[in-house]
Amino acid sequence: MTRTLPHSREERSGGKLLLPYAEMAMGLFIVVVGLKLPFGSLRTMAMLALCGLVTIYGILRNPYAPLYCFAFITPISKAFGTDFALMFGSLVAVWLRRDICQWRWRFSLPGTAYCLWGVASLLWAGEIFTDWDSWIAQALGPMLLAFLVAGLRDTTFRRNLMLLVTVACCIGIIFSFRNWHAGTGEYGSGGRFYALIPPDPFSAWILFGLFSAIAWLADGGAPVWLRCCLLASIPWQVLGLGLCGFRAAILAAALGVVMVGICLRRLAKLTGLLTLAAIPVVAAAVLIPGLFNTLLGRFGTIATDQGSDRLVIWAGALKKFWDHPFIGYGLDNFKALTGGFYGDEMMPHSIYVGTLVELGAVGAVLLLVWMAVLLRKAWRAQERVWIFPLMVAFSFQAMFLHEFYFPCFWLAIALVEGARLRAPALVGTRRWRQLPEEAGPELSVPVGQLN
Hints:
Helix content is 65%, strand content 0%. It is mainly α and 451 residues long. Helix 3 (65-73) runs parallel beside helix 9 (155-182). The radius of gyration is 22 Å and the shape is globular.
């Protein structure tokens, strides 16, 4: 029998489910404003003003509000100014209400060391990039946000954050289908279809949303109406993954589902659930001709396209690695290297190869140790089914994608870093499943002050 996660505000409010309706409405309003207003200074000022209002609401009512809005907006908006405003608002709200949030530093030593080593590498980097697709623009803010989220152990916040990502992904997939119907693909990338953000990061967000929905269903604490919605979202998100056309995301999803079965030890029930979810996907493929042509075409060329030239890029970069084997070329300088031998500046498309070349052997060792620590933490966590399949899926996808540039990867890391652990000797045993939940509230104020 599955149990609702411990240390949630619902347990201290008579079992009432506390969902972030207000934050979802605020996030949706900001997205609509961003879509309706023409690009320019007016839209920028309006979006920043709305983010400021969310921050004020967070300070006065719920310090998690900017974080909730960030998790809802980022999968369906590519407005970097909005993202940074909400990240800054999250830091301010949590800091000013730290007596309520009870924030504590919980980032692991290997993770902290890896992040510091990466930032330090800018000192010897051949060039420091600050354009929109640079590490500073894309990864620095989410990394700082991960330090913040890792210190928040309130389970209500953690699972609501995941639920908001699921809702946002379902909305984004509507735009993927609209673009598929209009024949609007991604230029130069095999016709993969945009949502409101490019398909590669959106495929990673869908992985986050998919395993969040599965975890909510596996936990068993949601009301019937929410369980029905989450069940319907699973085939919808699988369809969205297909439209993204990213092969590694499909394989990562399959691997993550296997991990869910291992976590629950209910393979028969999981198989039945996935079979039920697969029926609409198969029906859509039959009734809508050409729906998955892009995806099937990309799998058809998997033996000849060298991973969309990834193998060529990696081989050339690894030859350059030996010129600076210990400390590397510095963050973001992988693309400068590829310009010399490939002709175009390319991203690493792998956190492992990218780290080896940019941060050297020292950075690669730190990364591997950190990934091992994260997977061990996720496996030992009380909320194992919530974070272990997701972490395994992201670790696999990160072999073929520069995940450190995606906020969803940092959020997943934060959830693992802040997870509560069971006693090592009992993890996975029958007694582990029978242990009473650990005592000790996460919040020391009445629930009404937060909602």
